[in-house]
Design brief:
CATH architecture of the largest domain: 3-Layer(aba) Sandwich
Number of helices: 16
Strand order of the largest sheet: 11-10-12-13-14-17-18
Helix content: 25-40%
Largest sheet: 7 strands, mixed
Strand content: 15-25%
CATH class of the largest domain: Alpha Beta
Number of strands: 20
Amino acid sequence: MLRFWVIYMKPQLIQAVLIIFVVVAGLAGYFIGQSAVPPRVEITRLTTVTLKETVTLPGATITQPGVTVTVVQTIPVSPPPTTPPRFVGTVKVGALLPLNLPIGRMMLAAIQLAIEEINAAGGVLDHKVELVYYDTQWTADKAAEGYKKLAEEKVRVIFGVFGSHEALAIMDLLPLYEVLVIASGAVSDAIDAKVLEKYSDYKYWFRAYVNATSQAAATWDLLAYFSRRFNWNKVAWVYEDLPWVIPHAIYGQTRSAQEGIEVAIAIGVPIDVTSFTDIFAKISASRAQYITWQFSGTEDYVFARDYYLGQVPLIAIGGGTYAMLDIFYNQTMGAAEGLICISWGFPTSITPKTMEFYEKYKKLVGTEPIFTTWYAYDSVYVWAEAVRKARSFDTDKVIKALETSTFVGTAGIYEFTRSHTAKLAPERIYPIYFQWQKGKRVVVWPFRAVEYGTKLLFPSIADGKRVWIEIPWP
């Protein structure tokens, strides 16, 4: 029947029908074959057929001569074969991390991820990067022991070094072993002072993160803005009673005087504090108009709980290791509502690399990167790029490249100061401040990162209870 139907068709129609049959058959074969072959690149081709007269096809009749039919034909094309990178050698790098702490393990995962990506892209100067890491167990002695061991392993650079006490323990080993360190923590200003005082001995130290004074400066930038915006001149300061906070106190004394802000009350708390009820009462008695807070431990949870239970009618601007995480709001059962928190690394478009790393890390680890995790990842790329700029693994040449270059990372753009720490500036490394609003982290500072239409939750008292009023921001 099909043969009879084709014989009595005109040549032009035969050509059109054959094209259509070929396309349909090709598409059918393609889709049937998808279960048996790996995914392939596809190219779309358009074939145009103009019908000269009425045509009857199986299942359809076209009764308008002159109709132009466009057939979409998808042609699968196999991708070119991929070959693994060819390396001319191996270069060892090290990591010193407190692997007994969750933050140490998270930093290690970020470092490993960066190395895997670099190796997949061809390595560094055609060398495969091999990681050797050492557990400092959060102690100075183990950090010094680990630095020696890694140096003896002939590593070219050491990443990590989270604690200031760990960093200070290895500083005097630097001129003996001359192994470069690019830390992603250890914020003590005492480390910077050593680099400035005796460059020849301590030039091997770099920090792909900011120091404590820079942390304080970033916080005071926002405190000063709130003071101007709402005509406030009294702030209460609640802080963790540990040495790392000392630069915050020193800087705060100077900056508060410059801004015309009085620190109405300053209260230090131990890391195992169990209640802020009395502290909030003292703050209220001081007539402070807003609060700033700095913690590095679990104080965040107690602070948020009592901030809610006490219905504290003051904006609280500060930082804590856990308050910046996406799970904190649910962990506090909503008590974090209204808190304004600092975040050194945040899932927003800080640089073109930010969200790519965030999504990849979260998929790999199952949690989002904590603050120093961003910088641990970036430190590996900073070193790799410095080596490429120096065209050498030679330590002195790499140091010179680090000192004279800028590097685009996930947390911002790195430019090292004379003390070999990342420069704090809005267009360099700078934190994001967000406010917890109904379970979401809404960015409120700096303004270049604030979305149009953002509101700020402002506390007020109505019928003896704290209520949050939405006001336009900025």
